[in-house]
## 1
Amino acid sequence: MRAKLRDGDIDGADLDARLLVADALGLDFAALMLRSSEPVSDADQAHIAGRIARRLAGEPVHRILGRRAFYAHDFALSPETLEPRSDTEALVELSRGAVEEVLARQGTCLIADVGTGTGAIAVSLLALYPAVTAVAVDLAPGALVTARSNASSAGVGERFWPVASDYLSAFRGPFDLIVSNPPYIPSADVAKLSREVRGFDPRLVLDGGTDGLDAYRTLARQCAELLGTEGHALFEIGQGQASSVRQIFLERGLVIAASKNDLNAVERALHFRRDA
């Protein structure tokens, strides 16, 4: 199986093969190693071969598995959700300081997670802070179903409120914190993404308009209207977008409070607050 993926020029072929075989057999990695010399039934061989064929056709390994780990939790995926990636953990990390500041001041915190997808950002924060409640917004009904299920699996379903809305147009606020990983790929660049991304992540969650900044313009306007007087706004950004995004929010009266790099030393998350 590994040889087939290597021959197919699949990045991370060895790990992908182990993940797919272990999941097909219902085993963890340790059990797979212990049973590596045991025969595999014809039915299991066919099951594994089908998964390998899907990977060779370009389907991401976590799409085939139907889930991906993010910030200590497993999140189910669906066709209408973005696959959560490690870059977004920088946004969760940056958000923690803002949440803790709000909790220290008033004891509770109301978050809006815009474009929630799998619910990864909101669920991660809810799991860390029992006094936090999140409104999870998405335009795609299927994404909201998946997010609700993920929140329930993580034990935070009662504090996770999924709502169908185009950004925050359905709300009056105020929110203590608005957080989002919005679409930020320039339209012309979507076709240049890897086949694993462009073929399986919904275009709706990738395409940020001509310059990749359309979502930030909408979010900046809504943050100015819907954030509480001491509210926070935090966003993931694309590489090289920090200066432009800062200016968009500054024009709406929100100033940069902090930023955080991802594991590749790329400035990946920005934290804004109202200009005092």
Note: The chain has a mean pLDDT of 90.
## 2
Amino acid sequence: MDSHGSKKRRSPLPRTHLACVAAIAWALLTLSSARPADSARELAPPTAVASQRAAATDEPAIARVLSQFNGTLAAAERDRIARAVIRYSAKYDLDPELVTAVMMVESRGSPSARSAKGAMGLMQVMPAMLEPLGMAGNFTTVESNIEAGCLILADNIRRMGEADGILAYFWGPNIRGGAYLERVRAAQAEVRRILRSS
């Protein structure tokens, strides 16, 4: 009540703030309490769409793309990378052509690639990006690196949409330009060209 005995109306702003704080707290609590396998599974369950994409772009096709981008890879290594791309693209409901394009932009298909900032492997994974998603461990193997990259990319796309999700793969949450998206789209067009010409 004010000095005249009438009730003061509260501004709706504090309720809005309270709702936002509650939503953020719930999201953080849910994220931090999820077990690694559960959080990865919840983020990107396999779908019929992912299976169709994987069927349309098979392992030999991805291996051919890899040989065009990185001629130094042995056939067995190309096949191993292609298997992982198909497997984890399907698991996280991503287009294998997009995953391949991101990999080509990030590392040119080099499993041993390392950046000055600490990104590693085919997908140039930053381990700090995985901790909030409930994934931890060694990301230097072909399979673990591609799975980690797919998990990050799928989570970004789920939260932000495809274009911003791809940009956030490079920039993190503070996107500062669109050049990375253009590079990925150009690589994706090249991947498609190689697949059609084979």
Note: Residues 10-34 form one domain.
## 3
Amino acid sequence: MLEDKNQHLTPISALGEFGLIKRLTEKFSLKQDSSELSVGDDAAIINPDGKKVVVTTDILAEGVHFNLGYVPLKHLGYKAVIVNLSDIAAMNAAPTQILVSLAVSNRFPVEALDEIYEGIKLACGKYGVDLVGGDTTSSTSGLVMSITAIGMENSDKIATRKNAKPNDLLVVSGDLGGAYLGLQILEREHAVFLANPNMQPEMEGYDYILERQLKPEARTDVKKILDELEVLPTSMIDVSDGLASEILHLSDQSQVGFRLYEEKIPMDTMTITTSEEFNLNPVMCALSGGEDYELLFTISPNDFDKIKNHPDFTVIGHAVDLEQGNYMVLRGRNELSQLTAQGWDAFLNKQ
């Protein structure tokens, strides 16, 4: 669990709640002008200066969202921030602050929480967000993290899931399916280790997809790119639960259908080769795998020329009338396959 197996371990009870909070947060500094008051008072003070405030919360629970048998604590802290910043990016807003709450059992020493907060600090530094508050409490069932992220944007720039129109183009950033295949590698090697602790894990050659799973990035850069291209998304969502699920969310909120073209779905070569190793269909990994944290959005067809040659974006389909439903056009055939939501659902899925 800890990077340094030989260090002296401090029980949380030795510090108490307020001593623990002070230790975990004292290395954080404020960067945002909108952060007026942060950790140490009863509440934070944020000054949006006339902008709309966007707020999101995600919970990560041990045994449901992560397995500490193979997830390093520093990576966990980093990823916990990223999944929330991704939601802010999906509103076409800029992330500015986070609040972090932990419920932790007494099997975790203070040094374990130090590592989690080191990852949180790395993410805050990279994305320029401030830690302005949170809470800690004890837990009888492992580790639970809840992070609230705050972002800001002018009201005319914010994108929601609701405004896609028929004939709008469906666009995705980056590539899909890699995070799911990274998880398959981790699960396989963890199972081998449990069966024989003397076996060395075979991780070599899987760097890209392992990073996609353990240390994803939030696509906050997409907003900047679209601003430079003078493109305003008509709807937007992040790909956290799988491409098919996110398309259906846009369909439901915007009251349109979609045509997704199988041959257009962007996938990295390593994703494809690893899926074959596991006898999995790479397209299904993209459709249902989740945790890619890319952005899926629609744009007016009039904006096609502005993005068509951009290396970060792929046009993968278009919107149609709601009555025409949601279908994938199969590769090499003009046949349709109905899209269904088989992505991640915390109440249905078990790792």
Note: Confidence is low (pLDDT under 50) at residues 344-351.
